[in-house]
Give the backbone structure.
Amino acid sequence: VDAMTTMTINATSVDALDGIAQSTTNPSYYAYSSASKPGLLFHTDREFAAPCVSSAASTASANNFLKGVQVSPDGLCVLTNSEDNVLRLFETAYGDEKALQPAADQSPASILQAKEGGAVYDFAWYPYMTSQDPATCIFVSTSRDHPVHMWDAYNGQLRATYRAFDHLVEITAGYSVAFNGTADKIFVGYDRAIRYFDISQPSRDFQTRALCKTRRSRRGQRGIISSIHFNPDHSRIYAAGSYSGSTCIYSEDTGEELLAIRDHDGKGITQVRFSVDGRYLFTAARKDARIQCWDIRQTREIVHTFHRLADTNQRMAFDLHCAGRYLATGSQDGKVLLYDLTTGDLVDDRVRLPDAANGVSFFPDAYRARVAVSSGQRHFDLHDNLDDEDSDSEHQAALTASSSEAAVRNVLRVYEYGADVPNDTVAP
């Protein structure tokens, strides 16, 4: 690719890791301790066990598996996405350990549901959301064959719709969505393009930034833009990952391509994420066990690679602790892996989910490491006697049995890792 800088993997640099240590370590912030096992604070599975209707085939499916989880910016609730195309909001009573302790016979229900008309591709919280100000309690989503929707997190009502149209003047669906740093615009990823909307003007007014002229063009970023993330240092730059296997960094103001990187053996990028200090960029891809950390300020090379099990096309999310020192990632085998960014070491793998750990999201607390995790994946139940006259009843029986199994596989949980800090430094 002529206009694309191709990066190659270098061995982990001690100097580079020292740079991460200097930029993320604060003695008063959370420090991991292996002395105690991560504690389970919240568990629910009831709403992910019932059979759902697949929007793709309009047939019953027993497996309403989760597809991701995001903790709200104020840490008081958790938003999930699942196979039935419903975004569910759960109240986790953050800070109240007694309220969070799971009861053996209880599976807390969601307090709000937002139903999309197709498979949900991506969703995002308003970054300055606080439950004390209802006007800020919003989130956006993008789904198959539908425009971008803004939802009210208090009542589940649709607040606004943002429509984008293709060259045939037909509504086109976005594949990724993110608020910019000042939260006055919504950036949405499409095929070879990024479009953005002014949140104060919900309509068909939008701006388009074409990234590649044609599908075969050798210049620019090709493919569907699958992930967008804005640098938290307010430098007005953002990263965009593509299913073509490339990741580019752009200027928010001009749309100029500032840096292009390609790795993961050309596999489709599923997530991009800047470090808390904005100096590093983390990328992950489908069917790729690696999460790669890039130094985007100086060497523009890979600082370290974090490993997990990911051998399917399913998106396996990762997240960074808000103090900047730890990375948590889901894994295909149900493990949630916690890495120390200052050393690159795996420090904990004791959180185990009953199926693939596809969603991971830290709570916004620099003095604790509390994380919401979700599990589940698509399972194919093949039947040998599909041509028999009793096949329908057999399929229904299998569906019922699979539904009970799904109750065990598909879960939303909250864990808290042990801390190696004095009690008087822990925020209430």
Remarks:
- The helical segments are 14-24, 97-100, 391-409.
- The chain is about 10% helix and 40% strand.
